[in-house]
Amino acid sequence: MQRLKDWLRALLIAFTIVVVVKVFVFEIFTIPTSSMEKTLIPGDLILVNKLSYGSTVPFTNYKLPALTSIKRNDVVVFFYPMDDAAIISEKSYYIKRCVALPGDTLEIKNKLVYINNTKQDFPEFAQFNYNVLSDILAEDTLRKYEINEGGRTFDSQLWQLTMTEKTKEHLEKLPYIKSIKDIDIPSNAYADYIFPYHEFYRWNINYFGKIIIPKKGTTVALDANNIFIYERIISTYEENSLEKYQTKFIINGDTTNSYTFKMDYYFMMGDNRHNSSDSRFWGFAPENHIVGKAQYILFSLQETIDKKPSVRWKRIFKSIK
After folding, report:
1. Residue 129 CA from chain centroid, whole number
2. Within its chain, how far is the Cα of 172 from the centroid?
3. pLDDT band at 56 (very low <50, low <70, confident <90, very high)
C-alpha cells in the first residue's frame, strides 16, 4: 500500500510539473498554415518560450511580469485579437513577426516596410506573389524550388506563384522562363477588408499607413476619421464604454476629444507577405494578448505525393529567426 501511495505521489508531482511548465514556461505548437513561409512551414513543431514576455494566467486576463521586451523582428505567438472569446486565454493562437513596436510610425510602400521613416530589410525567407510568364512550368520544377502556393491562371502562359527572392532569382535563370514580375497593386487601390475598413484610409496589402502604433500612456486626439483606427482599442481591448456622435465622443460617460492608451500595442506581419492574415487586416495586437516567443523548430513533417509523412531532417532543432 505504501508503494502505491509513493507511486501516486510521484505521478501527481510529475503531472503538476508538466502542467506548470506548459502553462507558464514552454509550450509546443504545430504550424497549421503557410502564413509564415518559408520561415515556418506547415508541419513544423515549434517550442515557444512563455516566460520571455510574461505568461498569461489561465482563465484570466492577467499576465505575469515579462523577463524581456518584444523586439522588432521577433517571431511571436499571441491570441488572435479579433476572436470574441470573453477570456483572452480562450482565444485562438496566431504566430507572426513583430514589425513595429509601441510608439513606432509604420508605413508600407510598394510592399517595403518603413519604421520611423527607415526602410526595413525583409526577413531572410520572406515570400511574395509574382506573375511568371512561361510556356511551360512543370510540377517537378515547382517541387524542386519548394513553390507550394499558386498556379496557372486562365492565360495558359501566365502563372501566379508565391516564392522567396532567392527562388525568384533561380527561376529567372531557367531558359523557359520569359519574365517574373511583381503583381501590381496601385497605391490608391482601396481594399475594404484592410484595417481600419474605411474608405478614408485607402490602404491595401502593399500600401498601408502612415500609422503610429499605440503606446501605453500616450494620448491621441480623436476625430471623425481616426476613431475607426482606435475604436476597438477603446471599447474592446481596454474595456471602456464609447459613444460616437460625428466629432463628439463620450467615453465612460464623459465627453472628450482625446484618449490615453492603457496598454502597449504591436504590429504583426506574416513572412508570407501576400498570404497572411495579420495586422494589415485586423489592426494591432494588445500586450495582454501576447503568449510567448517562438524559439526553436523541434520537429517537422511534410506530406509526400503518396500522402505518407516524411521527416524534414534539416529543420529539426533549427532556431527561429
Report:
1. 18
2. 30
3. confident
